[in-house]
Amino acid sequence: MQVLDFTVRSNETLNDQNHLIKVAPAGNEVLPEMQPGQFVQILVDNSPHVFLRRPISINFVDKEKNEIWLLIQKVGEGTEKICAIPEGGTMNLIYPLGNSFTLPERKGKYLLVGGGVGTAPMLFLGKEMKERGIDPEFLLGGRSSKDILQRSDFERYGTLHCTTEDGSLGEKGYVTHHSVLKEKKYDYIYTCGPKPMMVAVAKYAHDHGIECEASLENLMACGFGACLCCVEKTVRGNICACTEGPVFNINQLTWLD
Amino acid sequence: MAGLEVHIGDLKLKNPVMTASGTFGYGTEYADFIDLGRLGGIFVKGTTLAPRQGNDYPRMAETPSGMLNAVGLQNKGVDYFVEHLYPVIKDYDTHMIVNVSGSTVEDYIACAEKLADLDKMPAIELNISCPNVKEGGMAFGTSCQSAAQVTREVRKVFPKTLIVKLSPNVTDVTEIARGVEDEGADAVSLVNTFLGMAIDVESRRPKLSTITGGLSGPCIKPIAIRMVWEVFHAVKIPIIGMGGICNWQDAIEFILAGATAVQIGTYNFIDPAASVKIIDGIHDYLERHQIASVNDLVGKMIVQ
């Protein structure tokens, strides 16, 4: 973990709500090893109201360019300020934080399910799988086609399935209604997104005897285990989602009780 | 070279900057970010006789220039601390001070007795001001009688430096401060968090599972400074001031109001290295103003 200033290399508006911001260490420090599922805490500068940093998952690491990609949804004053940082601007991060998804050690059928901005860590996870000789499948959901972000990036690393609530892209409905879930038998499912979606995915996995990991988005203050605010109720009691998560095997959670 | 050393009870602090309980874990959480040995002291997470799971999620709500928390003293209990955490932290080159909380006077006594036996535990901070537990905590700190009683009983079993952490959720903080001074407290620390609440207007539900919680951060700083100044004129024992300190200017403000030392709290979450920057800033301020020792500034706000 470290605190470091980054320079915004690019800040791309993906739709009315989401920005893809690519950052590199301001002093050209070489990025440390990072794992899919980990996150950063972004300082919100020059904002009288916003006090806390904003936890954002690592969308992708481009080792060649020494860049971290951050997919950010504008949901309030903090994320609005972050998305307003121009190219060349500075962003202060505490990173890398949290645990990571369990990377597969053998071939099999792996499904990566993301909803909304929760698709972010799935790109990094898919790339790491591809580098291990595994072809992951992605199942991404959103309200409409404009909410399914980074499609061409995902297609580079595996097969892409989509659902939209209005039917404008892929199958109409929620991710858990997609036909691939009826047609195929997966060995492992990874999920990140709104909690109702993750609970539905976890239930599907549980009912079909499939191992499943979910990345939680609990509210956080520090992000490194000091404040004990982001706790998740687990079979081992209340534990910090920032240090012992954000990724949990669903067997550790109490969602399906 | 400006003098940064200050004394709190029997403690000689290398500088007046410490970190506040509940915001700094057991110090280890910050070891990647700073040299812990630079700190005047570290107040570790609130510790109780029995383990506590704390309150349900959500426990935190951000508010303008601050945050509400309702952690509820989640900790593994004093025995776990003694067996597993103390051995890890005891050799840090700073004062490690345990914040002690309880539901009954007997809890506080039993906890203090166990900590008194630890060689490298030079002080405890008696938390009679936690707003997030149903029983005990703040209940002790909001009445003069119970604040005095718990201080008196713990004083009997704890011969080392005894600091009492005061609640701001009282009509007159000076009465409580005088009460604990009379019963043998070596210092008071103030303020703990202010009782507050926040409501999500769309769902019309409270933002915290406990409805109310403790407010901290820069939004409370002016009130905390006023309380330190009031207590400074009411007691003779040293004051450890806290409440929204983010930089060296804030720390100096508390010192001018009457604090001998300060604790950095919530801001550790935003800048994990803030405490060390504040030490450097105080040092530079003293040099710039040609003040020989930080002690010369305590309570030296110039009026008129």
From TrEMBL, chain A:
UniProtKB keywords: 2Fe-2S, Electron transport, FAD, Flavoprotein, Iron, Iron-sulfur, Metal-binding, Transport
A molecular function (GO) term: 2 iron, 2 sulfur cluster binding
Residues where [2Fe-2S] cluster binds: C222, C227, C230, C242
Cross-referenced SUPFAM superfamilies: Ferredoxin reductase-like, C-terminal NADP-linked domain (SSF52343), Riboflavin synthase domain-like (SSF63380)
Cofactor binding notes: Binds 1 FAD per subunit. Binds 1 [2Fe-2S] cluster per subunit.
Family recorded in the similarity comment: Belongs to the PyrK family.
PANTHER family: DIHYDROOROTATE DEHYDROGENASE B (NAD(+)), ELECTRON TRANSFER SUBUNIT, DIHYDROOROTATE DEHYDROGENASE B (NAD(+)), ELECTRON TRANSFER SUBUNIT-RELATED
UniProt protein name: FAD/NAD binding domain
